[in-house]
Amino acid sequence: MKRHNWFGGGSAACLLLAAVVVFAALLTPSDGAAVMSVDLGSEWMKIGVVSPGVPMEIALNKESKRKTPTTIAFRNGDRLIGEDAQTLGVRFPANNFGYLVDLLGKTIDNPMVDLYRKRFPYYDIVEDPTRKTVVFRNGDEQYTIEELIAQLLQVAKGYAEESTGQSITECVLVVPGFFGQAERQALVSAARLANLKVLQLINDYTAVGLNYGIFRRKEFNETAQYFVFYDMGAYKTTASVISYQLVKDKATKEILPVVQVLGVGYDRTLGGLEMQVRLRDYLGQQFNKMGKTKTDVFTNPRAMAKLFKEAGRLKNVLSANTEHYAQIEGLLDEQDFRLLVTRDQFEELCKDLFARITAPIDRALSLSGLTLDIVNQVVLFGGNTRVPKVQEILKAHIKQELAKNLNADEAACMGAVYRAADLATGFKVKKFVVKDAVLYPIQVVFGREGESGNTRFVRRTLFGAMNSYPQKKVITFNKHTDDFEFTVDYADLESVLSKDEIANLGSLNLTKVSLTEVAKKLNANKADNVESKGIKAHFVLDDSGLFSLANVELVLEKTVKEDDESTLQKLGNTISKLFSGDSGEDKPTSTEEPSKEDSSKEEQKEDDKKSDEDKSNNGTNAENSTVSGDGEGAKNKTEKPKIVTIKEEIPSRVEVLYLSPLDGPQYEASLSKIKALNDVEESKKRRETALNALESFVIDAQVKLDEEEYSSCATQEEADAIRKHCSEISEWLYEDGSDADAETYEKKLDELRTVANEVYARHWEHKERPEALSALKKMIEGADGFLDKARNFTKEGNPEKDVFTQVEIDTLERVIKETIEWEKVEVQEQKKIARNEPVRLTVKDITDKMALLDREVKYLVNKLKLWRPKVKPTPPPKVEKNTSKEEAEQNTEEVVAEEEQVIEETPNQSKGEATPSSEDGEEIKPSKTEEPSDEDQHTEL
């Protein structure tokens, strides 16, 4: 049956419902925190996000684009990032910093820094006096690579938070697989400056492999499937051999898909940037040949920036077209430049680069031990794999079609955000085991004194090339009895890298570890029953590829006999035996395995038992038994000693050799510098927002006063005052107020609002009143209809359904009449008042009347819902006249007994059914026949 609509479906009801929904939403607690991934490439930055209830997605930037240029610029105290920085960089190239990722963790003498200077000669690069790293100098300001990267990560964090509507503090960052310890540690430091916790640094090809696998997990089985992922980005080219296989987990016995990196090859300087630089230089040479100006274009930073931008556009166009014009207006000395460039010319410029395209694939296959004939597919990703010549060379080399079923730009970012959801709390994802591979072998080098007294250096490999990680390793030093030190270095790189690549890696020495108190610990534990098992150093290569020393400890083995037990231990054993009821021997509990000592005792017990039997059966052998007991018997009684392992921590000091970490005062200084920049930017945003709000309000007020709808709500004095204020503020904004601060703009806006709000409030009242009155009328109609039905549920109207009292009916009737009369009088009085006079009948007055009427109706509705019909007792049967006196008395007793039983029954309960007693502590639930019927619900009202 249809329920009555108390609010009549009006807009007031909709407003009330919306308010309830909003209030409920505010009370709903958050299920978890969002996390993000950042693919921080040389040219572009992509941000992946995942939040509770929302699937993985790419966060959009302020231009609603899916990727953001990784450039940052500073000019006149302003900081620009992304496309704004690129635009500024064309006019002021020395103020715009890009391709920063490739300078992470590099000292000033690294060959990659020299190459960067050659490509971008207009930057002022200096050396950090403490850390020997790269510092960009911009006027009086200096910025380290970590500081610039941190600001890019802060922008990424802001975009992710805007996308999810939640605060984000955790992330997974995508890095090139060839990043060494220095680059990885520098990126972690940059993330720390950005107030981000790095859950993991994931290699780009590993992230892509994970992204490829999670959507194809049903295609994998126990037989390994092999794929080659080929990536050509802006700065580098990599190829990786990756396998997919279902493997049974030893711990959980669950069969899980595993993605494992088997081989990696790369070229650190082969990418789209080098092609773009060559095309830039070619365009510059052609412009100089035209002789339009005597100035060499290569000496003008602004002209070079314009050529670089045009070369990037031209490179992309030639990927789809065989020829295209390069066009730049006012390139140099107000001279325009226009030149037709063909794809053949472009390919000729990059001829030597194209010859290096297949080398990473061959290197990856060589390290994996596989050949192309067992590889399922060669999958492309990375923006510059779209170059036709690149695809042509690859296809000819592998002799099969190239797979292009990945999003070349976003695959790594989406794989990383899946990993972020897996690592973060509050998310449940389908498990996909990831095993990466060590690219640079790591070894321990320590000195050992030989027999001649000379010290020789011993090398032990910890993590070999292509070993899986994360992984833990332990190395034992068993010849050292005094304090010593050892180093951790990259090992055997000649078999993995070319000579140039080794130079690009930077320092080959990673850490120096100094151990102290070795002799002190050994002497403190020197005893006849103590044997040293050496000093064990525990190393970790975590899932971010970061190497660390976990701890160092001295391991000792102590031999303990039963006689060596202390009095306290014996007393404890005796008490245990008393409480356990044992007669004498130690017995293992059900949760313990018997020790060697316990086993020897059991064997001795059996031997003693056999000896006693021999004595009782053959007295003549007693003497022989005694002799045997002194000899072989005594030997059998000797208990095996108990071995106890003792571990003593050895103090260790780790010194980083590859790069001084960003820590201490330097870290605090960088943090303060970034905070100051953020404060300036926030102040700038606040000022812009306040200025825009003030300008908009002035214009809006002037326009509204020219409209009859608003002007009719203002007196002449009010209109003149508003126009005067608007005029004064307009003049002030374009003269003295152009450089005012945010607080001044906000104060001016408050003053103007104070003057105009009275008029705006009247207009709002006149506009909203008809809708509110309509909602009130519909509510009155609904309440009146309910009143007509409710009269049938009184004792006077229907004795069997006396839900309401007459007083309640009269009260509702009185409220309805008063509301109708009030509405009629107030509407008539309001019509007598002009629109620009103070309002008599406000929307709040109307909603208050609606609330009063609604309260009265709801009271009766709730009472109707809770009402249950009363159960009448069954009358006793009449006694027949011809019945004897005894029979009559007997029948009367039966009737009384029956009547008492009926009174205890619940409605519709059959006679003879036992009624559950509440004294038993059980809940008394009505049977199905006791549930309120449709009629009881009174839905017909």
From TrEMBL:
SUPFAM superfamilies: Actin-like ATPase domain (SSF53067), Heat shock protein 70kD (HSP70), C-terminal subdomain (SSF100934). Residues 889-903 have a biased composition (Acidic residues). Residues 617-628, 907-918 have a biased composition (Polar residues). This is Hypoxia up-regulated protein 1. Its main location: endoplasmic reticulum. Keywords: ATP-binding, Chaperone, Endoplasmic reticulum, Nucleotide-binding, Signal. Residues 1-32 form the signal peptide. Residues 584-616, 878-888, 923-941 have a biased composition (Basic and acidic residues). Belongs to the heat shock protein 70 family. It is found in: Endoplasmic reticulum lumen. Residues 572-640, 870-941 are annotated as: Disordered. It comes from the Eukaryota.
